[in-house]
Design a protein that fits this description.
binds magnesium ion; 282 residues; Rossmann fold; alpha/beta; 8 helices; disordered N terminus; 2 domains; binds adenosine-5'-triphosphate; six-stranded mixed β-sheet
Length: 282
Amino acid sequence: MTYIDVLPPLVDPAPPASARAGLIGVNRSMPRRSVAVAEQPMISVKDLTIGWGDIIIQKDLSFAVKNGEVFGILGGSGAGKSTLLRFLIGLERPIEGVIDIAGHGRPDLAAGLPPFGVMFQGGALFGSLTVGENVSLPIEEWTKLPDDATAAIARAKLKLVGLDGAADKFPSELSGGMKKRAAIARALALDPELVFLDEPSSGLDPVMSAELDDLILTLSKTLGLTVVIVTHELESIFHIAERIVLLDQVTKSIIAAGDPRELRKSEDPRVSNFFNRRSKES
Ligand SMILES: Nc1ncnc2c1ncn2[C@@H]1O[C@H](COP(=O)(O)OP(=O)(O)OP(=O)(O)O)[C@@H](O)[C@H]1O
Ligand SMILES: [Mg+2]
């Protein structure tokens, strides 16, 4: 069994008996924050080139994500944001360069549980399972906890994301924003210290989107969670991201990195256009 097997489906079929639903969870060997070397970044990327064969999606990427921060990966549609996530979590092998997650090197699909939770772009809950069962799936898959303990953990994760009492509902009974929260609860099921969220607020209205931002910020601040977020929502980025990288599809490279509120004032027209145009639209 490899991590390919834990990828959530693109559609939402009934899960097989051994469904791993999503979910990449926790690496017990991962250092806890309290004992981690303070200066060691949670993610370090050096001279990374991603793509397949002759197809280069992005090249020479270098950046670091600090422990406990909310870090944004930005760029126009097709720039390679989701692709970069797939490489960061070890689903693809880089053409060149180095990825290190929590000092453990590049996640190895064959070696064991990775040190993060993931909410994939458009990642759906299984419609045939209750919300609680959805959140329980990774716990059932990766631990030997008894059913009642698993259910209790799932309820606690749902409470954490403001979905107290929703465990017995089916996804179809939830609003769009509640579904996103439930998907985040599933990504948090095994207490990872790092989560990747790919477009978590897509399809939400501005109020729900802002509520989700507040949830992400709260999780980061109260749990010390490191969050890597991909989003088109510039208001979200200005609100929650401490730092970002901006991927450019034309040059296939990072054209800006740092505090998004500062980058908004950039003199590079590609950068200021991205931030200001998109922000006025939203
Ligand atoms: N397995 C693959 N083989 C070849 N090309 C791929 C593969 N997966 C993605 N691509 C290409 O990589 C490019 C970047 O796609 P990606 O989904 O990463 O963009 P994105 O920045 O996440 O866009 P969006 O904002 O629309 O989600 C696209 O041109 C896509 O067609
Ligand atoms: Mg994408």
